[in-house]
Amino acid sequence: MSGSNSSSTILTFIVGLGVGAAAALLLAPKSGDELRSDIADRINDGVENARGSVRRATMHAKRRADKLVSMAKDEIQDVIDAGDEAYTEAKNA
Fold first, then answer.
1. Which alpha helices (H) appear in the chain, and where do they start and end?
2. Is the pTM of this model over 0.85?
3. Which pLDDT does position 2 carry in this prediction?
């Protein structure tokens, strides 16, 4: 799954979840104060869940970037070593 497609799917799910939750709260037989309190609580829970998801995604991206940087450094060092070896062989020839 591509990152853009995955992000779009997750965002669509979250929006649908929010709309469904809001509809359920609005149709529930509660007083205005209870309803507003429930809506505020659900929104706060949703915001916290979204923040946690972003935090996890950021950590995953950082680990992946660190791994790619490490791999690139290893490749560059291999090229440098090969160049030094070639230079030494050419110099001694």
1. 3-27, 32-92
2. no
3. 55
